[in-house]
Amino acid sequence: MTHYERNIRLILFLILPILGFLLGWTLNQKSQNPTSIISTATTGISTENETKISIVDISTPRKKTKPKDVDLDIFWETWNTLEANFLNPDKIKTKEQIYGATRGMVASLEDPYTTFMTPKETSDFEESISGEFEGIGAEIAIKEGKLTIVAPLKGSPAELAGIRAGDIVLEIDGEPTFGISTEKAIMQIRGPEGEKVVLSIYREGEKKPLEITIVRDKIVLESVEWEMKDDVAFITISQFGTDAASEFQEAVNEILLQNPRGIIIDLRNNGGGLLDVCLKISTEFFDQKIIVKTKGRKFGDSGDIISGRDGAFLDIPVVVLVNKGSASASEIFAGAIQDHNRGLVIGETTFGKGSVQNVIPLGDGSSLKVTIAEWLTPEGRSIHKTGIKPCETIEFTEEDFIEKRDPVLERALDLVGTDEMEEILTNKNKVVEEDVEETAVSETETETEPEAVTEDLIEMEEIELAPIE
User: Fold this and answer.
1) Which of 19, 233, 374, 421 has its CA 20 to 30 A from that of 253?
2) Which residues are catalytic?
3) pLDDT tens-digit series, residues 404-449
4) Which fold does the domain 224-356+373-427 belong to in CATH?
């Protein structure tokens, strides 16, 4: 062996372990990054249930230099023209101008879940997902261009005043909400404890808008509550917030002592929360199963997310309750229950939010909540704008609301752990097989009908290419 070859081997011997260590450390840091938000926005505020800013992506370096191929002359020309000509120069505030321009840039993406937050809004956001904040306690989102109530939080001023999931907010204190951003709506609805806000609400079935006055209050939200009902553990998860995993684990230990014949998970009006919290709770029901699939543009944003093993509730029958206020993390949990045939999902079709956001801190304390991926159920179903359809649809009527009946819970108690439940679960696979066969026959038949095929393809493209919200 030549002297040269010995030197090369020595160099490789020294460098390769270092490279291996650096690669392993990088991947470990990425895996330990706090998980993304998969929720909407709360006017208490908890946005579709936004949650503590441990939701940052620090693994990807951001450019610090100005892009060379972007011409900002028009921006500075406008800036200077305003300074030279605007009637009230005392109203020109540099920081507000910069924030306004940044908001405009983000808004141009036309994704209601990608938003810029000022330092104050960032602080409020962190506070809202900690489970304690001031406001009316209602989760909101822009759906089909309308400011929509995803869900009032349990026991909140919004719920007590009569706000319901699906209500469309037409005006806030007399100001129209047409074209409003989620952040602006939040700023208008929020306020100090004890002060009032008046919402003009459109509600399906009502002949004219409702004027609802809500007194703001301090919102302290218990993420997980449970009780025994007829030997069944009835667990309500209000949000997948920062404390939900630990609260759920405490409930697990107590529930096991009761030896329940079944478990009912109530996710109605649960607007979402943190993905990692949803996964920790899901692990108690699944043994190394895919809980959700993610599809993003960057390394690490796409793939299958799998539950742990040795969950406490693996063999206990489960029924999940959902409604149109169940969004994001709630839909992930319900979708996994459905796709793995682990239990039944009953109630109403869910909200339909299928995207994942990261909250990235910026230099001055502001932050950017940005959509980084879309998520799919374990079988690859997209719920964007369609939601999770329950195996049994049970609507909560006006009469039920007035008389304080809960037909969805009553049906769940009748079903859980029974032969009827097992029969429904068994027949599910037969229905799926029949659907597949019918689809195959339909495709064969339409080979001679090109117009019908073309229409079907157009409809599919519209669904697949719809912007993520």
Assistant:
1) 421
2) 328, 339, 353
3) 889 999 999 999 999 999 999 988 754 444 444 444 444 444 333 3
4) 2-enoyl-CoA Hydratase; Chain A, domain 1 (3.90.226)
